[in-house]
Amino acid sequence: MNKGKKLYEGKAKIIYETKEKGLAIQHFKDDATAFNNKKKATVEGKGVLNNRISEHILNNLNQVGIKNHLVKRLNMREQLIKLVEIIPIEVIVRNIATGSLTKRLGVTDGTVLEKPLIEFCYKKDELDDPLIAKEHIFAFNWATKEEIKIIEEMTFRINDFMSGMFRGIGIKLVDFKLEFGRIWNNDQKEVILADEISPDTCRLWDIKSEKKLDKDRFRKDLGNIIQAYQEVARRLGIVPETTNVSEVNFKKPTSINIKKR
Question: What value does the mean pLDDT take over residues 41-69?
Fold first, then answer.
């Protein structure tokens, strides 16, 4: 499928139009960013891995009734997706306290929460994606009460499914970010899951060692970023245990090349 004009470019992905109504192409970049784009680098192969991992997770969520924007993976870096009207809210799910939560509230890092905690952030890079309450969402008409109810119900279901999926491969799902969008379905707007789910958007710790297998390796200068993402892909069964590397079939080794920008 041929790409049309660029519709949107974010920190990690580019969205292109297609000739098919209601469909777009999502391209995964190798760009790595942290602290709301204040720290940047290029990590070769990251986009390939995120494409494969997100495809795997979204397909599995679809099979358990979580509608999302993925139609199919096109190649090593691109997916065909439904074109959605993104709701300008990031939904953060926390199962274990770490990161900004511990800094804001003085909670001990690694505290297991009794129940999953959902937080909302206003999706606005120039404002550093500020934490917001539901009252802000309704006051500024970013989403309706019915939409937020649907989003919360879907979020808890996604967390239940993903927690079990990762637990089964020896990984703790510490926290993760979700985004949702609207599509037209039979002349009515429907809320579906959008964006990606990958080590870029999740905190993933090895159950035994608590080794970080996510973007914290970039945030905290821990190194071995690609190896960590590959480990997640291997455990999910996306690539064979014996495989070391990237490209479409992950047949050749991938070297890490981080270029500070």
Answer: 97
Name the pTM for this structure. Answer: 0.90
Do the bridges between strand 78-82 and strand 202-206 make them parallel or antiparallel, or are there none, so unpaired? Answer: unpaired
Q: How confident is the model at residue 185 (pLDDT cuts 50, 70, 90)?
A: confident
| Contact between residue 30 and residue 13 where contact means Cβ atoms under 8 Å apart | no
Model pLDDT for residues 91-102, shown as the tens digit of each residue: 999 999 999 999
Check if the beta carbon of residue 190 is closer than 8 Å to that of residue 183.
yes
The Cα-based distances of 246 to 87, 226, 255 in angstroms read 33, 9, 9
44: alpha, beta or left? (left if phi > 0; alpha if psi -120 to 50): beta
* Rounded Cα–Cα distance for residues 161 and 158 (Å): 5
| CATH homologous superfamily, domain 6-84+225-248 | Phosphorylase Kinase; domain 1 (3.30.200.20)
> Span 98-112, mean pLDDT?
96
Structure tokens at 87: 């709701």
List phi, psi (to 5°) of 51: -60, -50
Q: Which residues of 123-146 are buried (b: 16+ CB within 10 A; e: fewer)?
A: beeeeebeebeeeebeeeebbeee
Task: Say if 6-84+225-248 and 87-206 have the same CATH topology.
Answer: no
Q: CA distances (Å), 49 to each of 106, 135, 197, 232, 248, in order?
A: 34, 37, 11, 9, 9
